Amino acid sequence: MNVNQSAPPLPPFGQSQPVYPGYHQSSYGGQPGSTAPPTPYGAYNGPVPGYQQTPPPGVSRAPPSSEAPPASTAQAPCGQAAYGQFGQGDVQNGPSSTVQMQRFPGSQPFGSVPLAPVVSQPTVLQPYGPPPTSAQVTAQLAGMQISGAVAPALPPVGLGYGPPTSLASASGSFPNSGLYGSYPQGQAPPLSQAQGHLGAQPPQRSAPPQASSFTSPASGGPRMPSMTGPLLSGQGFGGPSLSQPNHVSSPPPQALPPGTQMTGPPGPPPPMHSSQQPGYQLQQNGSFGPARGPQPNYGSPYPGAPTFGSQPGPPQPLPPKRLDPDAIPSPIQVIEDDRNNRGSEPFVTGARGQVPPLVTTNFLVKDQGNASPRYIRCTSYNIPCTSDMAKQAQVPLAAVIKPLARLPPEEASPYVVDHGESGPLRCNRCKAYMCPFMQFVEGGRRFQCCFCSCINDVPPQYFQHLDHTGKRVDAYDRPELSLGSYEFLATVDYCKNNKFPSPPAFIFMIDVSYNAIRSGLVRLLCEELKSLIDFLPREGGAEESAIRVGFVTYNKVLHFYNVKSSLAQPQMMVVSDVADMFVPLLDGFLVNVSESRAVITSLLDQIPEMFADTRETETVFAPVIQAGMEALKAAECAGKLFLFHTSLPIAEAPGKLKNRDDRKLINTDKEKTLFQPQTGAYQTLAKECVAQGCCVDLFLFPNQYVDVATLSVVPQLTGGSVYKYACFQVENDQERFLSDLRRDVQKVVGFDAVMRVRTSTGQSWLEKSRRGTKPGRETSGSCDICSPDLIPVASGIRAVDFFGAFYMSNTTDVELAGLDGDKTVTVEFKHDDRLNEESGALLQCALLYTSCAGQRRLRIHNLALNCCTQLADLYRNCETDTLINYMAKFAYRGVLNSPVKTVRDTLITQCAQILACYRKNCASPSSAGQLILPECMKLLPVYLNCVLKSDVLQPGAEVTTDDRAYVRQLVTSMDVAETNVFFYPRLLPLTKSPIESATEPPAVRASEERLSNGDIYLLENGLNLFLWVGASVQQGVVQSLFSVSSFSQITSGLSVLPVLDNPLSKKVRGLIDSLRAQRSRYMKLIVVKQEDKLEMLFKHFLVEDKSLSGGASYVDFLCHMHKEIRQLLS
Ligand SMILES: [Zn+2]
């Protein structure tokens, strides 16, 4: 039986394009970490009689022994047990049956808790500071200080060189931490990384003063010829004192007397080792390698590094050297400087090619013709005119686009423009949409397309006179002529089958197998859904959501529910033929919430009881998605499936999986198979889902390996989200799960979407008579409106690669069954041909989608970029955070096809090329021993190192295959702010700043040596949240926060702070709430005590240090990068 109609093909974007509706944020009611109390699930009052026909209890069998351990213990019961223990299913597999369900008498009244309103974060307007100077940062890495000279001034454990103090005690397993779902593994970390170096220092050597490191090249000045190694910097790198205006065009800093100036904003004093640094030593060429020879792990991450043996004269004495961490670029300082300089004034988008403030800066945006950086951020806002330049620089040209980004309340949602039946105005040739860059000519009767230069007629109803500057007099009355972002209402031409869409539907599909029941998940979820369905996304001022809902439960068979409002009780229909899935009912499956509320409530009360005694442990997965998709197809609407799933789908059915986890593959050529889906069935299924506009959100509750790499294929390709709660237990994890669920269900989503990014061809026109003089440069298909004597010359940039959660069936259209306000699409551009400095380059992102109310709309974002003929302009207008977003996504996709080591080497090489190109072409001549970084990219090495040592690219022993696949999948859709904090976590000291201060305390660098044992710190990366407590923190602080009298009484692993009525407690809890509200997923708190075994987990996030998995410390990596650059330059 097949109730489906064939899916109509998506209308190609090239023809009439659909319009994207904008959505209004006002309907968004919830926030993660909202004050809505966790929903306690109602007490279970005993089994309900009368359910005999629902899954029978089956043979009496001991439940599987895969129970999750208590989260706070260090046991490893969630280990990857064999699946053999699971028996065959016990549920009937017979023909479909219809069962009259009865009301569960003991259903608990559910306190419907309205979700908290959006927590707005007012932007604090501060006095406007001077813009950041574009300074050349001359990182003079020279002067690797002799450790002995510096070490005493530093904390005993620094840079990851020293043995982690708690390592010995840390060999136990991790408690269930709530980290993105790691299972306790009980494996000791490799100890090899812990070799100490500080202890083996040679006697201090005296070194020449380094005052010459800034010597002017012109004079051939005081440069020391022998200092071919890194020179000692006279300038601290970390402080703002390094900022130098005009790093390229102004005289090089060398002109300044050594050890002085570098005028810049006042800031912390330069590091003490400046010019009076006592201990420097001459470096021979490339002498880093030998110097750190004893470090077993240094070489391994970079096996591809060029060897330095060929370099002349390796230094004979091999004293351990180290850089002063204060002398290298500090992410914290860069973030602080940008906040101070750019956080006080709105970012006005009028001018072309403006670099926006950093994502870490709180600022308002005024749209004056270019899209807000909340929608589009670019790796560079000034792109090379030629592909040769671009290739030379190796700086990826990419835009991170978040078409439906949520805006702060102070900023207006895009206006919706309605052109009536004629629809949005577009260029006849390239189909670009009307935008502020279009040029009106001939008194306003025609317009020239800014993307392809085609001359188009202005339709009579759109005609308007021009003013003396050639601008339409109504330009400021029309969003599409004055704003960077706006929406058009789409006409029926933009709809599937030339039919306006129906409102979308949500289908909740709940695993009711043994594990789901036993963990309390099903009861918790059903209880929550009773109230959550009142908060489905709405549009504008709509009183209720237009979205219809449906419910399915499943184990190895599927149960559909008829919740038609006219029924006294819900009805269940069982489909056991999972190989040929169909939807057994049409009428009554998808219903309006308010009409069917009583029946839905009854159903949600009954589900936990019906399956309370289940012994069924096997599940299916693909048939569940298939069923949801078929249901949407039958209802002729788009929608979203919410799947709540617990285990590897081993039941006999399409998409059946086997446990193929094999950690032995790590660091082999076959490692990539761990990230690849084990069957192609899910891709095929995803394709069908996309055609139907069926987006899939997956909530996983695994107790062991579930093959996230395969299960996440459909969510990934349909624009959905994956959430993972390893070893889920209601008491420990309900807050996190419910927060995520509430936010996810309430998210405004665009359905059945297609996104296309158009770029200007920057082009010129070629007379036909000259056609053929430049083979391959003409485009075909000139339009009949244009002069017949001219043909366009194809040039400019074009989108060539895409990263994100979507599907593509051709090379240009990004198809998204669903797209929410958190998801980004990263687009890479390549040159077709020359760009023009005068005209710049334009991007137009058009997203056609169906709104939550079923309205078809087009959302348009425009952005104009500058073009340059000087590489220095490229480097001066780059954004490292966006670059890292692109590079991480590029690398994370790369692991599907290449060995992880190859992926890492590629990243390192590219980074070195980028920096070497700058050094060669833009920096002032200087000693080869100097590492010179472009101001805008001075954090590239530290951030790139964080990507390289992330769990996907360099997993630690405690990271499971599923964790890696999960993180890989998450990063794919992250925006720039999310990747920024994910790769370089925020570490906030809590007692240093005054308690009464309302602002967030300034962060410190993510390194153990920044931790004071007398303080407490919060660390967050968007997914994890730690509260670290130093061993000698004041007793009063301990009392105020934990309500215990001493450090030793604090419970390690605590996830909730007691609610105490004192300023410190309020401040810390308020800060935690605030951090959670900033992130798209709920971060579960873990309290970590210094020297406790949990601390190892925490240290994983101190990313400037050497990692237990072998990742280099920041200092080491910077040295390595310097070496690579010098190789390229020599
Ligand atoms: Zn055009």
UniProtKB/TrEMBL annotation:
Query: Is Ubl conjugation set as a keyword in this record?
Result: no
Query: What are the Zinc finger Sec23/Sec24-type domain coordinates in residue numbering?
Result: 424-462
The subcellular location is: Cytoplasm, Cytosol; Cytoplasmic vesicle, COPII-coated vesicle membrane; Endoplasmic reticulum membrane
Ranges of compositional bias, category Polar residues: 14-34, 90-101, 166-176
Single GO MF annotation: zinc ion binding
| UniProt record, GO biological process | COPII-coated vesicle cargo loading; intracellular protein transport
Q: Where is this region: Disordered?
A: 1-108, 152-329
Q: Residue ranges under compositional bias (Low complexity)?
A: 60-77, 200-213
UniProt topology in membrane: Peripheral membrane protein
Q: Which InterPro entries match?
A: ADF-H/Gelsolin-like_dom_sf, Beta-sandwich_Sec23_24, Gelsolin-like_dom, Gelsolin-like_dom_sf, Sec23/24_helical_dom, Sec23/24_helical_dom_sf, Sec23/24_trunk_dom, SEC23_SEC24_subfamily
Question: Which Pfam families does the entry link to?
Answer: Gelsolin, Sec23_BS, Sec23_helical, Sec23_trunk, zf-Sec23_Sec24
KW Protein transport (keyword) present: yes
Describe the family membership recorded for this protein in Swiss-Prot or TrEMBL: Belongs to the SEC23/SEC24 family. SEC24 subfamily.
Protein's UniProt name: Protein transport protein Sec24C isoform X2
Native organism is Enhydra lutris kenyoni (northern sea otter)
